[in-house]
Amino acid sequence: MKFRYLFIAALILNSSCFAQDSLMFRKIADEILLRGNCYDNLHVLCKTIGHRISGSPEAAKAVEWGEKTMQQTGADKVWLQAVDVPRWVRGYENLQLQYGKGKYKTVKMLSLGNSVGTNGKSLTAEVIMVKSFDELNSLPAEKVKGKIVFFDYRFRQDFVNTFPGYGDAVKYRGYGPSAAAQKGAVAIIIRSMSTGADDVPHTGSTHYVDSIKAIPAVALGNFSADTLETACNSGTVHARLESNCRMLPESVRSYNVIGEIEGTEHPDDIIVVGGHLDSWDVGEGAHDDGSGCVQSMEVLRTIKALGIHPKCTIRAVLFMNEENGLKGGLAYADSAKAHNEKHILAIETDAGGFSPRGIGLEMPDKQKEKICYFRKLFLPYGVYDFEEKEGGADISPLAKQHVPLAGLLPDSQRYFDIHHTNNDVFEAVNHRELELGAVTLTQLVYLVSEYDLK
Amino acid sequence: MKFRYLFIAALILNSSCFAQDSLMFRKIADEILLRGNCYDNLHVLCKTIGHRISGSPEAAKAVEWGEKTMQQTGADKVWLQAVDVPRWVRGYENLQLQYGKGKYKTVKMLSLGNSVGTNGKSLTAEVIMVKSFDELNSLPAEKVKGKIVFFDYRFRQDFVNTFPGYGDAVKYRGYGPSAAAQKGAVAIIIRSMSTGADDVPHTGSTHYVDSIKAIPAVALGNFSADTLETACNSGTVHARLESNCRMLPESVRSYNVIGEIEGTEHPDDIIVVGGHLDSWDVGEGAHDDGSGCVQSMEVLRTIKALGIHPKCTIRAVLFMNEENGLKGGLAYADSAKAHNEKHILAIETDAGGFSPRGIGLEMPDKQKEKICYFRKLFLPYGVYDFEEKEGGADISPLAKQHVPLAGLLPDSQRYFDIHHTNNDVFEAVNHRELELGAVTLTQLVYLVSEYDLK
Fold this sequence. Notes:
Largest interface: A-B, 28 and 28 residues
Oligomer: homodimer
Shape of chain A: elongated
Low-confidence stretches of chain A: none
CATH class of the largest domain in chain A: Alpha Beta
């Protein structure tokens, strides 16, 4: 049924129409809450493979696991899509700080992803603290030259949704090294992009500007950053860094994992739902983004289990290399274009396996209204927020092909406590929260397929 | 400003009126998210006192801590309200199960609160499993007599909000012992009131019907209950219980802790916000209900810190003995009646320190509408649900005096994983989630005081 016909029908039969969909929404929820297996799948991924940075042996195992698990959903077709990915490795790393004339003491740290290291040598220099790029830029070059810049920028805790806080702070992770190197710095230390009241360092990708020297970049947890801040305010601080992290010269062949249920009425209209299979090389990539992977597969499993024959084609995609290259998302979009595929909606789930609260909609108002028309169906499932314009990184390359994008918006309060850390493990995921996210995704996919909301 | 004037004004000045309140909502959020101390207070309560069952030395310490912490909020007046509470003690307890002719093996368990014990003796009997009261009642008495009844009723996971699931299952904890004893059983084992995919037993209060023999009652975690279910389905099971829990004959003098900021225009109109200070004798009572206590005090601190001079009197109450007697809530209501106090709203926060999602309103529609008129102010803080009729246990005795009741409704997904268990510890509380609950409470108190929504 096209939307305009639906709309006319709805004026007359509004309640009965919603009643039917409401019933299907309930069936979807029951199937996942009572018989779902996304939580068990996440357990296997986290505990038998663990973290899985692009190009690593673990990432290769995760592809195998993904292909097998995708087949178990009952998908009509499962295949791998080749992607060449960068391979960054960490190796041994150690940071010591000396306050005044005290002893050098090791602090908890993580090199930022993509960072260069000290090639195993020891790099020792004075630390200069700045609160912002503005403060850095206001300093004369001789005050920065040869120093290690400490970007002491705090994650703003006053945002209710933590993602804008992350967006605000993450520039220091992304562009800190080049900004500091441009003024002659030899390395940088950042305060982690963290909401945590703890000492947990967070990794995550940094980027080097081509024309500027690449210098090592490391992150401290909030408590260590507090201590360093106090020390910098009261005297001289030196740092001694040894790190072996490096980008390997050769890319590695890897894969997106794709599963599909063919549509019965509009097989050429594709709805894609996905998360990313790679993670950083710490923790177990449980929330980021094992959760999104198992939820995406749960959508296919649930459709099959309920005997739904979707009108449109439904695809689940486990994208490779979201964290440090986006090669999987780019390859998927390239392939879609090359094969002249028609995607009517792309949905990403990459904000953690927490209680769903909304669906971000990155699409023209006309399409947004079509989805929002059904918003009250989502309300009993705690999903009320349709105001954010938010898709996701892996599906973002499809925007060039004018594909409408959507993103699952879970509760954001805990995400940046554990994002990119050793604490992002299976135990940090609650089974009901994870499952409810899969419920929302399946409900959305069902609606869009049923009503062809293009 | 009375509501009817406000309403007329609002028709004309709707946006500017909301804009002012919206600004105050933002100030409240900034104060708590950036300078709040409820998380630190919770840390002190959990780590220096820990669990604090009514009548225990720890509960007495918690009263002292509560009084001191209440004073630190800057409250105009702080006092203790005497309450005589029951004193239940656990002591050593051990449950062993024997499957078929195998060895007796100890399983993880907790006696239910208020339960009688075996007086240190060993009670051994065959286990008979029933799925429901109906099944129990359909059995001939001779099949139950002398046996230990295993109530194998599962917490329903298909409810999206977990509280109805708890309400559905908890009757087996509350009335299981008397129902079984009436048929001649000598003890009961229940499957915990738990959403957990784990083996964590949950305690919580049971009640004995006066005319029926009181028999011991214990709870198993879900995994142990699964094992016992399988064993009961396939053969004979015996249990050996030894427990020393008992209700002491004498009640103990304890206290509600009360703090107050006097209203500037309507000092006789009281708004009360509270949680309960007692907990079960396991874990640290962090979510249940240390969170509610520190949030309630945070309301007073924030009002003082922002220099708000509330029109009505604002009270924070740390109620004693919610878990096994409600003596604190009853004493507070009795005192309110005796002193002819006029409560215009009573708010409870006793559903965990999780992300706030709504405010339950247990009051006539007319008053409900007055609060709901402002609902869009709460939306940027993730609070969207005003549909539940939900106050709280401690404030429920005020209902007889026709006091409108409200309850903070946090996200409910994780609560019944840890409720009444050894896992209800400080580390299970996220600082931002806890703080956002305090934000919602302060915003609500501010609105009701400002617009005198009676």
